[in-house]
User: Fold C4-type zinc ribbon domain-containing protein from Nocardiopsis codii.
Amino acid sequence: MKAEPAAQARLLNLQDLDSELQVLAHRARTLPETAEAARLKERADQLETDLIAAQTKVSDVERQQRKAESDVDQVRVRADRDAKRLESGQITSGKELQNLQSEIASLGRRQAELEEVVLEVMERAEALDATVTRLAAEREEAIAKHTEVLARRDTAAAEIQWDRTRVTQDRERVAGEIPADLLALYDKLRGQYDGVGAAPLRYGRCGGCKLSLSTVELNEIRSHAADEVVRCEDCRRILVRTEESGLGGQAEQ
Assistant:
């Protein structure tokens, strides 16, 4: 394949633009805000799950508290009723009087036990309320941070897209200055070799694979006309001769 030296040199400009597009694409895929937003979303979701679980426990404890308070009220009512009977003087039987006094004492002990239960349940309820308050605050904080990070991610993505648009336009302009057959070969090689289809020959070294060419290879390149498209024997990329190629007396671009 033949192409004017100037057209071959434009391949290096095109390669620089394509490499920049690759970098921009990588940046778009690996924005740190994307990973941070995912982490915050996961945390907010976990906090939501924990909050629902804590709220469910609060509801359960509230039912337990109402039940315990109801039990206390029932025992208190019964004890008050028995106390009034005792104080009325209507009971004349000694045995019945003794039984009533024993029942009042038993109800007193039962009431004390139930009141301890109520206190214990109330303490659990207070602790759970504090947990619900804390989880709700942490969830809101995570949601706020997630929203903030999403905004930063979108801003960064928009800036990258603006750069991609600019570089793409430059690429279209440069590609239009390269012969179609040379451009097709370059694009084919770029697809085969990690996005690099053309590389400069500088100081006897290929800029694509970074390997130094042998004396035999350099002499062969010297033998080619300036418009002959040459390729690296090692990586097979298009090798563009430059003023720093190290080819000695051969006319170089």
